[in-house]
Recover the amino acids of this structure.
């Protein structure tokens, strides 16, 4: 089993040490993990609050080893329609095994909170979120896998506590998939929605469609911000990918490794 999305105290919103997360992974029987701390660029007054310190990152992970566990070092980048150059420049500062691309902000608002939902119908809020995602995946090259595609409904401010349905936005979602596939990018099955909005982010129907359109790279991540969440629902996630793809991917030095399930 694998977990390719987790945050230690290196992230502004993480709680535990890298060593504690790695130990939790061993205790859960995971074989390979990847740390993916946040680098999200905020505009206005909150700039810098979601950027980890590179020295703290290296101190936390570079000498970390545990028998029986393969540890990879990655990053979760917030994608915006204009931060490609900064991202490229930063990615030149150290080598990562894996880069997740995420949409956390739409029109300068954190979609996690209620401000984003104000003045929009649920459909409009979903639509604007996917439009932003499409714009970002079109202009970005330097990420490996699109993270938690339906994160929108996970947030504290979301009036909807259910998985975001594929059918209602199928055309734009298909377009996002086509762009990802044409660029050789993957799709993450993020398990953190199970407790928060009743399903994986995104749900299995998205993965079936991704495969139908030619998508091949798929990863699993818990998005744990505490050690007790590491590997959560990883077994169930493997089951979903086993049925649809027959494998799951991990990454080393930005290259996918395919593991038969
Ligand atoms: Zn995220
Ligand atoms: Zn995350």
């Amino acid at each position: 089993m694998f977990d390719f999305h987790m945050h230690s105290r290196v992230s502004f919103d993480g709680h535990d040490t890298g060593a504690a997360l790695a130990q939790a992974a061993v205790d859960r029987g995971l074989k390979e993990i990847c740390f993916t701390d946040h680098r999200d660029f905020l505009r206005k007054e909150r700039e810098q609050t979601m950027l980890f310190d590179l020295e703290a990152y290296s101190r936390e992970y570079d000498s970390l080893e545990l028998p029986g566990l393969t540890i990879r070092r990655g990053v979760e980048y917030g994608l915006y329609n204009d931060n490609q150059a900064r991202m490229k420049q930063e990615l030149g500062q150290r080598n990562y095994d894996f880069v997740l691309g995420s949409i956390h902000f739409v029109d300068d608002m954190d979609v996690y909170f209620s401000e984003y939902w104000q003045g929009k119908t649920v459909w409009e809020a979903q639509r604007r979120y996917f439009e932003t995602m499409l714009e970002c995946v079109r202009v970005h090259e330097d990420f490996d896998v699109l993270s938690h595609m339906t994160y929108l409904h996970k947030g504290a401010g979301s009036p909807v506590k259910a998985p975001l349905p594929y059918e209602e936005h199928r055309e734009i979602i298909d377009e996002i998939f086509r762009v990802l596939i044409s660029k050789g990018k993957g799709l993450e099955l993020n398990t953190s929605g199970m407790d928060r909005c009743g399903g994986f982010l995104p749900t299995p129907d998205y993965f079936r469609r991704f495969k139908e359109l030619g998508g091949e790279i798929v990863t699993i991540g818990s998005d744990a911000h505490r050690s007790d969440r590491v590997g959560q629902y990883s077994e169930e996630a493997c089951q979903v990918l086993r049925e649809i793809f027959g494998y799951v991917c991990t990454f080393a030095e930005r290259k996918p490794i395919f593991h038969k399930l």
User: Anything to note?
Assistant: The two ends are 9 Å apart (CA to CA).
